[in-house]
Write a structure and sequence with these properties.
Layout: E1 2-9, H1 21-25, E2 30-34, H2 42-55, E3 58-63, H3 80-99, E4 105-110, H4 112-120, H5 122-135, E5 141-143, H6 148-155, E6 160-165, H7 189-202, E7 204-206, E8 212-214, E9 219-221, H8 229-242, E10 246-247
Parallel strand pairs: 1-2, 1-9, 1-10, 2-3, 3-4, 5-6, 6-9
Antiparallel strand pairs: 7-8
Helix pairs in contact: 3-5, 4-5, 5-6, 7-8
């Protein structure tokens, strides 16, 4: 058994500090690093990439809407061509910080509202895929199983990686419970560790209505900006180690 453990990092901005990136980078194997559109200033991004490189953590570009004020959690009806250009711009910006730090962007994951939009929004999903194809078609795309994004990426010949959210609630149709609704966020480290192990072993997760939903994933996300994030990530990592699950990145570690 093997799984990648990822987290959203590099989201501080100026004097506004969010999360403990250094502690999380000691626990995860992949870092979804902000690219400056929804969060992250240049110095934060470069430092996060440098620490990730030192820790042997693979860096992915977490691309989002141009929405610093809303932390990228508000849907924006961006024209697909513009969205593709925005995504290329973000990947390139982060890749520059990576290369100055001895690493490189190794995959792409949408953030926040864009992540949720491309579950069903075909045009925006295809725009993200078009951006990855234009920048580097060897980059895997990380997303929700069954999403329009992964379907479009697969059709385009990109490597697709299915993701499971350790600390988020699931609906009966295997999508994420909106953050505004009850059951969206989970806070018990033992509970989230148990549900991750059940997903790995049995391919199911309990939805908010109590039903079992089929879910399989190659990478598991534990959020770095939630209260108690480090303690939760540490508990999850310890639980995986105790269960004999190998924790390793799905993408290459070394810069080309």
């Amino acid at each position: 058994m093997r799984v990648d453990l990822n987290s959203d990092l590099g989201e501080s901005f100026g004097r506004w500090v969010l999360g403990d990136d250094d502690a999380m980078l000691d626990l995860v194997t992949s870092a979804n690093v902000a690219c400056g559109f929804h969060a992250g200033d240049p110095s934060t991004l470069r430092r996060t990439c440098a620490v990730a490189a030192t820790c042997g953590v693979v860096v992915g570009a977490q691309v989002g809407y141009r929405d610093l004020a809303g932390f990228g959690r508000r849907f924006i009806d961006v024209e697909p061509g513009q969205l593709a250009d925005d995504v290329i711009y973000q990947i390139g910006a982060l890749d520059g910080m990576c290369r100055a730090s001895g690493t490189a962007v190794r995959y792409v994951k949408p953030h926040g509202a864009l992540y949720n939009a491309v579950v069903h929004h075909e045009a925006q999903a295809e725009a993200v895929v078009a951006a990855v194809l234009a920048y580097d078609p060897s980059l895997p795309v990380l997303g929700l199983p069954g999403s329009a994004l992964l379907r479009a990426a697969d059709a385009a010949g990109l490597r697709t990686v299915q993701e499971f959210f350790v600390d988020r609630g699931y609906t009966p149709d295997a999508t994420l419970v909106p953050r505004s609704e009850p059951g969206a966020l989970l806070h018990d480290p033992d509970e989230v560790t148990a549900r991750l192990l059940r997903m790995i072993n049995d391919g199911v997760v309990k939805a908010v209505d109590g039903s079992d939903v089929r879910v399989s994933a190659e990478s598991a996300c534990v959020h770095g900006d939630s209260p108690g994030a480090v303690a939760m990530a540490a508990a999850v990592r310890a639980g995986l180690d105790h269960a004999g699950v190998e924790v390793a990145p799905f993408a290459r570690e070394q810069a080309g």
